[in-house]
């Protein structure tokens, strides 16, 4: 007697609004999106603490409100700051997720895109471990090419990928001239996401 084979059910890369491949590090720095608001925009940032130093736990501590402002002179200006992106991509390609995508993470601050203010309301914030003006790693581009299309498949309202410098010009400069927008655009062909500035 032959036994029926179990049909394999494809495993979604998402557990609700958390990306399974990411390391979950829940942050308290988020809130509900306004009624009717859906994510239409991905905002790319860069971060390193102290500036230009990679690795360590300072970014994680900042996004979970545990950063000691006395641990480094540059941390003093961050005291009391409540901020977090949805995702952080480390130099080696490890991804941390701090806020579920359905929630409004506090990452963009005072911002506007295409005449619409308060980008936090309708965006996904993604931090790249790095420093504006410097290059990013091949591993980070590979992870972006994997994560961004999966975001767009799960949230079909997502349309564009921009930098923090584009939604807060004059106030912010990240990810900066070291980020290769052409390279990202090539990797995202066919994903339905439009990269700005357009190559």
Automatic annotation (TrEMBL):
EC number from the UniProt entry = 3.5.1.28
Where the record annotates domain N-acetylmuramoyl-L-alanine amidase, the positions are: 27-176
Tell me a Gene Ontology molecular-function term this record carries: metal ion binding
EC main group? hydrolase
Q: Which reaction does it catalyse?
A: Hydrolyzes the link between N-acetylmuramoyl residues and L-amino acid residues in certain cell-wall glycopeptides
Q: Entry's Pfam families?
A: Amidase_2
Names of the cofactor(s): Zn(2+)
The superkingdom listed in its UniProt entry is Bacteria
Q: Name one GO biological process term.
A: peptidoglycan catabolic process
**The keyword Metal-binding appears for this protein:** yes
Q: What subcellular locations does the record give?
A: Cytoplasm
PANTHER family, per database record: 1,6-ANHYDRO-N-ACETYLMURAMYL-L-ALANINE AMIDASE AMPD, N-ACETYLMURAMOYL-L-ALANINE AMIDASE AMID
Name the protein family: Belongs to the N-acetylmuramoyl-L-alanine amidase 2 family.
What is this protein called in UniProt?
1,6-anhydro-N-acetylmuramyl-L-alanine amidase AmpD
